[in-house]
Please model this.
Amino acid sequence: MMGSGGPDETDAERKMRFLFGLRSRGVTDARVLTAMERVDRGLFVRGHFADRAYDDMPLPIACGQTISQPSVVGLMTQALNVQPRDTVLEVGTGSGYQAAILAHLARRVYTVDRHRRLVREAQGVFQDLGLVNITAFSADGSYGLPDQAPFDRIIVTAAAEDPPGPLLAQLKVGGIMVLPVGQSDTVQSLIKVTRISSGYDYEELRPVRFVPLIEGLGAE
Model:
């Protein structure tokens, strides 16, 4: 993903360039690559940045949020190791792109965002794509979804200083959570948390930069 392709680039060429870029940045899991091939990122990017939808870069979306760069989405999804019978919680719906990819890998995806507008717009795209195994909520994601817990997998697309306690508690034994950890104005670390019978195992994956995880509901 070395920038946009030329104006005469075909869909097949664009898709090949997109997947090659993912592989070159470490996304090698065949199921993850297939899911990302099936989900058109262009459907989740609107306005001035629509022509950059296939570049490996984060882009602005509504409510002051961003859609993560595809390689980071792929690496987080790969680390999550979603299995076909898993129930997944995503904290931070954003554009809905990550949830749409998860929907091709898991049995059920619950996604929550503090911004009602983002949830509403994402629901429209999910419906257009026929993704019936996603349930989207507008709520304070830092508390998770206790009524639907426990979860096999949890993914957080906003940075907290520490993994939120309620989310750790909603993870099944043997379950995996992937999230960025660190202060919002510094480089953060992508962390993989595995719940084991005696507690939690933490693995640091790579430096990243995400918007901060904020408690409460957004203005819209």
Q: What stands out?
A: The beta strands are 59-60, 66-67, 87-91, 108-113, 134-138, 151-156, 171-181, 188-196, 199-208.
